[in-house]
Amino acid sequence: MAFNSGYYDRASRYLRNVKVLSYSNGTQVPATFDKVKFISNDIESYYTVPPNENNRLDIISYKLYGKVDYWWVLAAANNMETPQDSPEPGEAIAVPSLRAIERYL
Fold it and tell me: Can you give the residue ranges of every domain in the chain?
């Protein structure tokens, strides 16, 4: 794994202006993922994705935190490597507290 000072595809709504880590297999993840480690005490609640609801992390982030910018928090807390890894309808995902998030801002 090597740090890539470049950015993800600027056309992506998730990945604009995000510093990335590049793996030898070509996979890229936000650099914050390398440092973000939520522990059980950081989890404030669990959110179950309703069956007929959009399961995009940015939309869930807005519902839970009031801003789309915390999609990466949900991804990190639930061991998802990219923003395209979305929870399945009916799946319960861990929701870190704002206090826990502040450690990484």
Answer: 2-102
